[in-house]
């Protein structure tokens, strides 16, 4: 198994001694602090909506996704984007495949940092071994598509976009934050070289997503998508609880 050792090196270098984070009293616009415009390989999620702080494991067999994994693992800090695609128009090339979602500028997804990877040959029914790459990752910051670089329509190509950090415009009034979310925010900052101001507020944002993750099970696609697109931390924390009560009343 190939361990992504430098990822853990970042965590150790970002050692955190206290679990307290002072909320920002003023905050610059995300356009001035969060713009990064980096290429992001995108994996379309068809059966689940994953939130920041949640884990995601990809078992990749198709040629285009093997190339995606190779691209990801060549990066100093391996990462990829994931966007729910079942609500998007789909294109089937030549009536046979591949089935590719039609993403567009403005779509929002979650950036996942790779924790671990494994490559192996898996036996098939026909007895011919098949290559597989397994990626284990954790959701960190959200991103918004700025430009489509590759649409992934060819069998051997994958979706590649240019994106901007998509963060909350206001944070919850919390006096402290779990060290786990502070570490994840710092790891994200190191991987993407984003502003330290964003790193501090991101830890509170991640804490809110962890709460929403516990309130909304995997099957609640619509509410999870709303949480991803919401840019107010306090609203994100209050909406799931209200929806749960309303659903029970009905």
From TrEMBL:
UniProt-listed InterPro entries: Lon_prtase_N (IPR003111), Lon_prtase_N_sf (IPR046336), PUA-like_sf (IPR015947)
Transmembrane segments: none
Segment forming the signal sequence: 1-19
Keyword tRNA processing in annotation: no
Coiled-coil annotated residue ranges, if any: none
Domain Lon N-terminal: 40-154
Keyword annotations: Signal
Entry annotated with the keyword RNA-binding: no
Name of protein: Lon N-terminal domain-containing protein
Source organism of the structure: Fistulifera solaris (Oleaginous diatom)
């Amino acid at each position: 198994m190939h361990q992504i050792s430098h990822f853990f090196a970042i965590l150790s270098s970002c050692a955190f001694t206290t679990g307290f984070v002072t909320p920002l009293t003023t905050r610059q616009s995300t356009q001035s602090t969060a713009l990064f415009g980096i290429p992001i390989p995108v994996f379309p999620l068809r059966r689940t909506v994953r939130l920041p702080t949640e884990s995601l494991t990809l078992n990749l067999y198709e040629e285009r996704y093997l190339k995606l994994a190779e691209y990801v693992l060549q990066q100093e800090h391996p990462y990829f984007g994931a966007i729910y695609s079942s609500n998007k128009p789909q294109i089937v090339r030549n009536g046979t495949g591949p089935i590719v979602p039609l993403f567009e500028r403005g779509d929002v997804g979650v950036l996942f940092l790779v924790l671990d990877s494994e490559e192996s040959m898996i036996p098939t029914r026909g007895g011919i071994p098949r290559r597989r790459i397994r990626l284990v990752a954790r959701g960190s910051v959200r991103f918004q598509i700025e430009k489509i670089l590759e649409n992934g329509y060819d069998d051997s190509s994958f979706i590649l976009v240019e994106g901007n950090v998509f963060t909350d415009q206001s944070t919850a009034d919390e006096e402290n934050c779990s060290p786990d979310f502070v570490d994840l925010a710092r790891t994200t900052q190191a991987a993407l070289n984003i502003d330290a101001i964003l790193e501090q507020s991101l830890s509170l944002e991640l804490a809110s997503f962890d709460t929403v993750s516990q309130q909304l099970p995997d099957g609640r696609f619509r509410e999870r998508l709303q949480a991803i697109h919401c840019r107010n931390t306090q609203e994100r924390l209050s909406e799931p609880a209200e929806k749960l009560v309303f659903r029970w009343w009905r």
